[in-house]
Please model this.
Amino acid sequence: MGIITHKYSLPETGFVRLSNIIGDPKADPPIPPIIPVSKSTWWAGVKSGRYPKPAKKLGPRITVWKVSDIRALIDEQSV
Model:
């Protein structure tokens, strides 16, 4: 798995949604992926512990992750 380090697309702190992590080419403007995997691959990785667990569930279809957890994942993978 290759991680594309678009750290500039992550806020310094706070939370991000899945589309900010795996990208969304249909968004206007398109969101480039930080971790270029499919949605199902991401959720399988969360279940297996490869990717961080979500921080919060804001609604039935809105889940967010801590930016610090995503940055730690990027740093871990780039070593």
Notes: Residues 67-77 form the longest helix (11 residues).
